[in-house]
Design goal:
Radius of gyration: 29 Å
Oligomer: single chain
Number of strands: 12
Number of helices: 25
Keywords: Membrane, Polyamine biosynthesis, Transmembrane, Transmembrane helix
Strand content: 5-15%
Strand order of the largest sheet: 7-6-5-8-9-11-10-12
CATH architecture of one domain: 3-Layer(aba) Sandwich
Helix content: 55-70%
Organism: Novosphingobium resinovorum
CATH class of one domain: Alpha Beta
Protein name: Spermidine synthase
């Protein structure tokens, strides 16, 4: 060993590890990274609207910046640690010049499509800080590993994901309810300053380490097969996390904030898989195949009859799969000198999984077929430790074992088909449980053969609801867009045709020609909107101009009256196709001259001429994903501008899980509006649905005349008021969630 090398080794040995400092640095950086994503999305909502292409663009920006940050960390590794620290701190200080975080005032570029302009705006707004913060996790691990006695750095990646999980949970539970958007941005800037200080201290603690001792091995070649496996093992959990969110909110149990749970479990899987103590990861990997067999069999379920038990099982499936695949990824990790390359490939795999699920799948599939496909892919990738190892059995020759496997699979397929043909009730719990137990047992028996295991899993998926899901696809009952999955279905008796968005009913039309123009579901004769629209000629005159936000099946069109001028605002062009074809005829039959404006309603209404409507109906809150920007005081100001001074504003706030009445009450008071409430419980529960509508006006006389129109169907004063109104700067649904509904209690 040369004198120089010996001196470097001795210097490195005298450099203290300071593990706590590096853990704190990684925790703070990851916390800030996952806090900024929902914060910027919240900032963008009033300006860009709630169109999914905005969120898809945001996701692409985040993934691109994360990849760029990991690539930058990998590139930085070629320098001595002192120079790395100097470059990184310089970039951090440059990025700090863009704080506090907010959307920059960038005008639209002529000729540039929105699909390109939105990522450009988001990237220019948060790109510098997101880029440098995203690099800190792999970079801090590399700096930590520079001291030989520091130990393996991989557990610090677990700390990184723990920080990410904390940031993810902190936003909806703490930041959004307690702080305005402006204060959120200022608090984040303070956290960024703390991060810069911690990184400076971490760099100073490694000032005497010229370069990583293992740097000489950094150029070792990694086989392409290994890199491909890294990509797959990181892509499948990433895609499965997003597909689990889609599957849950679309077909099992749509509820507010549910998207947080799969992402949180995905992050926690890294904490388990990359821990120095392997006991938990080993245990999860051993039980994961059984969990995949049991809960994966419901991956094709699409009947919307989910419970909290189904949610828990689906989330358990995600946690087991993600932990198992990430643990295998950990087992395949390279030497510490290849650390940043390893994380760069992992990041690329995560991005591929996200692009497949969020961008490609909605264009290719009519339902969330990516979910069962990813579960099957996980079954083909996860380690399988047979509980019944026929392959090593001395009582059976290998050839006979394969023949037995074929016979068993053939029998399983035949039995599964017969059960599908003869079952009387596909939702019968006892039958479902028996079928599951049988197929799980069969899967355990063939676990020694990976393709046999996957085949049994596929049979189980088909048997536990997949048959009906496939039939809906073959019969073209579904349509998918970036806004969701729509299911068009006629009931068994051929009386009604319904349109559902996931588990939320969007409208229904009678197939009997004598009743085809009846407005059903939320729009029955006793509903608030029916009473209000019937009173419009007496209140606003016979030639009132009516605007409706939310087209649905077009049911409200048949509440129009002669002489009126109607305009609909609808965000999804697919919904318009349902209402302009033979599937639903309300719009064509009752308001053939109505205009339909495609786009985010708040943005479109902001561009109409002042006083364009006497009546404005906002029917966009019955789904479980609340478009918050349509219910702030700023949104009410947009509606008031579009209405005449004595105009009537009607809000539909029926919702299973969120009580919006206090919010409307507080916003009405803050906006100088009076409000009446109509809660309708129709006797005919087949044709009509309970609903709650709120009527608002700046003119008390308008509401008084409305209340006098139907004494037999009274309105009541809206007394419910939130402590503070919702604004673009501060709003949270958390205080208004009906938690008893989520737990199944009355």
């Amino acid at each position: 060993m040369t004198d120089t090398a010996e001196h470097m080794l001795q210097t490195a040995r005298t450099t203290p590890p300071r593990r706590g400092l590096f853990v704190a640095t990684i925790l703070v950086g990851s916390f800030l990274l996952f806090l900024v994503q929902p914060m910027v999305a919240r900032m963008a909502l009033p300006r860009l609207g709630g169109a999914p292409n905005v969120w898809n663009s945001a996701m692409l920006v985040y993934q691109a910046l994360l990849l760029a940050g990991y690539a930058y960390a990998h590139w930085l590794g070629r320098f001595a640690l002192k120079r790395q620290a100097m470059i990184h701190l310089a970039l951090l200080l440059i990025a700090a010049l863009t704080l506090p975080i907010g959307l920059i005032d960038m005008p639209r570029i002529a000729g540039l499509p929105e699909a390109a302009w939105v990522p450009l705006l988001l990237g220019a707004s948060i790109g510098p800080v997101f880029f440098v913060v995203s690099a800190q996790a792999p970079l801090m691990q590399r700096w930590f590993a520079a001291a030989p006695e520091a130990g393996a750095p991989w557990a610090l990646y677990a700390a990184s994901n723990l920080g990410s999980f904390a940031g993810l949970i902190a936003y909806p539970l703490l930041a959004e309810p307690l702080l305005s958007v402006r204060l959120q941005s200022l608090a984040w800037s303070g956290g960024f300053a703390v991060l810069v200080l911690l990184i400076a201290l971490a760099g100073f603690s490694r000032r005497n380490t010229p370069a990583p001792i293992a740097q000489a091995h950094a150029s070792e070649r990694i086989p392409a097969r290994t890199i491909g496996l890294w990509l797959l093992l990181s892509a499948v959990p990433s895609g499965l996390m997003l597909s689990t969110t889609t599957h849950l909110t679309t077909d099992i149990f749509a509820m507010p904030l549910l998207w947080v749970i799969p992402l949180g479990l995905y992050l926690l899987s890294f904490v388990i898989a990359f821990s120095d103590r392997r006991g938990s990861a080993t245990f999860v990997s051993r039980v994961a195949p059984v969990v995949v067999l049991f809960m994966g069999s419901y991956a094709m379920l699409s009947n919307g009859s989910g419970t909290l038990w189904a949610v828990a099982g689906t989330c358990l499936l995600l946690l087991c799969v993600a932990t198992t695949l990430h643990a295998r990824l950990y087992d395949l990790r390279p030497g510490e000198a290849q650390l940043t390359r390893f994380y760069l490939v992992m990041s690329a795999g995560g991005a591929l999984g996200g692009v497949f699920t969020a961008l490609i799948a909605p264009l290719v599939f009519d339902w969330a077929w990516e979910h069962p496909l990813l579960v099957l892919a996980a079954a083909l990738l996860m380690p399988l430790r047979p509980l019944l190892n026929w392959r090593d059995s001395t009582d059976m020759e290998p050839g006979m074992a394969h023949i037995a496997l074929g016979v068993v699979l053939l029998f399983a397929g035949f039995l599964g088909w017969e059960l599908l043909e003869t079952m009387l009730d596909p939702e019968e719990a006892l039958f479902s449980l028996m079928l599951t137990v049988f197929l799980v047992g069969l899967g355990i028996m063939v676990m020694a053969w990976r393709w046999g295991f996957a085949a049994v899993l596929l049979i189980a998926m088909v048997g536990q609801g997949g048959f009906w899901t496939m039939r809906a696809t073959l019969e073209h009952q579904r349509t998918r867009s970036y806004f969701g999955i729509y299911t068009l279905r006629d009931d068994a008796e051929g009386r009604f045709r319904t349109l559902a968005h996931g588990t939320t009913l969007h409208g229904m039309q009678a197939l009997d020609p004598a009743h085809t123009h009846d407005a059903l579901t939320y729009y029955g004769p006793g509903s608030g909107v029916a009473l209000a629209l019937a009173a419009v000629p007496a209140i606003e005159g016979p030639q009132a101009r009516v605007g409706v936000v939310g087209l649905g099946t077009g049911s409200l069109a048949c509440r129009s009256q002669r002489g009126q001028d109607w305009t609909f605002f609808e965000i999804d062009p697919v919904v318009l196709r349902f209402s302009t074809t033979r599937q639903f005829t309300f719009l064509k039959d009752c308001t053939p001259k109505a205009r339909v404006v495609i786009g985010d309603a708040r943005l479109e209404l902001a561009h109409v001429a002042p006083r364009s409507f006497e009546v404005l109906v906002i029917d966009a809150f019955s789904s479980d994903a609340i478009p918050m920007h349509l219910l702030t005081t700023e949104a009410l100001a947009v509606y008031r501008r579009a209405l005449t001074p004595g105009g009537l504003l009607i809000l539909h706030i029926s919702n299973r899980y969120i009580d919006l009445a206090p919010v409307v009450g507080a916003n009405a008071r803050a906006s100088g509006l009076m409000a009446l409430s109509r809660l309708d419980f129709p006797e005919d529960e087949v044709r009509y649905t309970p609903s709650r509508w709120i009527a608002l006006s700046a003119d008390r006389g308008v509401l008084d005349r409305l209340a006098r129109q139907r004494p037999d169907a009274p309105w009541s004063k809206l007394e419910e008021r939130a402590p503070e109104p919702w604004t673009d700067d501060h709003a949270s649904i958390l205080p208004y969630v009906r938690w008893s509904r989520l737990t199944g209690n009355p």
